Amino acid sequence: MVHLGDKVSFTVEGVAGKSLFILNLDHEGVLRVIFPNKFDKTAEQTENKLQVPASGAKYSFQVTGGPGDEIVKFIAISGRTEQFETAIESLFEKGQNFPRAIVPVATATETLEDVLAELSVQSATIEYRIEK
């Protein structure tokens, strides 16, 4: 459980040699790409363990909005990612710090799942509730 105003970070292990993407579905139903982002532009990972945001990063994740359920999806892709990156570019805003989906969430998730079915992927999901 997290509370409004909390700063959060995520530590992901087993990502060396993979490209990491992190998506967040907030309690209002807004889907965003939170990694890579305008500050951390590289999805490709060389280290086995990664903290997002890293210590000393120029950004942070702070819990805002109202109480409710949120979902964070971690996607680690081995090999070529062009197909997935093209899908992200077509489904999300361009030039934003944390791009928001420009299509309905159901359309975005269905399209991304179809693309991921063709790739070598490891994924994990965190669901949590924001409390006042």
Q: What is the gist of this entry?
A:
With 132 residues, the protein is of the alpha+beta class. It has one domain (2-131). The chain has helices spanning 82-91, 105-116; strands at residues 2-3, 7-8, 10-13, 18-25, 31-35, 49-52, 61-62, 68-78, 120-131.
Beta fraction: 35-45%
The overall number of domains is 1
Euclidean distance between termini CA atoms: 10 Å
Tally of helical runs? 2
Shape: globular
SSE series: EEEEEEEEHHE
Mean pLDDT: 92
Strand order of the largest sheet: 1-9-8-4-5
Radius of gyration: 14 Å
What can be said about the biggest beta sheet?
A: 5 strands, mixed
Structural class: alpha+beta
* Total beta-strand segments: 9
Low-confidence stretches: none
State the helicity in percent bands.
10-25%
Helix and strand arrangement:
Blueprint: E1 2-3, E2 7-8, E3 10-13, E4 18-25, E5 31-35, E6 49-52, E7 61-62, E8 68-78, H1 82-91, H2 105-116, E9 120-131
Parallel strand pairs: 1-9
Antiparallel strand pairs: 2-7, 3-6, 4-5, 4-8, 8-9
Helix pairs in contact: 1-2
Protein name: DUF4384 domain-containing protein
Pfam family, one: DUF4384
Domain DUF4384: 3-76
Q: How would you characterize this protein structure?
A:
- This protein has 132 residues and is an alpha+beta fold.
- It has one domain.
- 17% of the residues lie in helices and 38% in strands.
- Strands 1-9-8-4-5 form a five-stranded mixed sheet, with helices on one face.
- 20% of the residues are buried.
